[in-house]
Backbone:
């Protein structure tokens, strides 16, 4: 092989190598661009995750407040139920008392009517007695 052939072979090999290197450089640049793009997307995802963490923390505070409020509402409902039971008891007592008072009023009215009739009977008897006394006095005086 002549020196020219060897040089051509070397040059040809160097060109092929250079061509391969350029292709590899292009691929590496493409990979770097894709990595840059992925880094940007990761940064964006991290920012979104930070936002989500803040919102989650805020939601946790809200849930804690709601749980506290629900606990207070449960206590209020228990107190209202206790008061409502007391009102039911009072209404039952007052209803019973009213019924007793109506019965007492009826009984009192009956007794009053009886006493009124007895008083009328006593008045009539007293009037009859007075007439009898007058007759006796007239008969005695006369």
Residues:
């Amino acid at each position: 092989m002549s020196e020219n052939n060897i040089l051509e072979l070397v040059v040809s090999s160097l060109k092929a190598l250079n061509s391969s290197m350029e292709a590899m450089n292009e691929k590496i640049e493409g990979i770097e661009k894709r990595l840059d793009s992925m880094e940007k997307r990761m940064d964006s995802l991290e920012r979104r995750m930070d936002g989500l963490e803040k919102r989650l923390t805020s939601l946790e505070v809200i849930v804690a407040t709601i749980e506290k409020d629900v606990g207070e509402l449960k206590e209020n409902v228990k107190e209202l139920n206790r008061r409502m039971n007391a009102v039911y008891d009072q209404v039952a007592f007052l209803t019973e008392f009213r019924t007793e008072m109506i019965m007492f009023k009826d009984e009192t009215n009956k007794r009053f009517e009886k006493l009124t009739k007895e008083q009328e009977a006593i008045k009539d008897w007293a009037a009859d007695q007075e007439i009898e006394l007058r007759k006796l006095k007239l008969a005695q005086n006369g």
Summary: Residues 8 and 14 are 9 Å apart (CA to CA). The helical segments are 3-141.
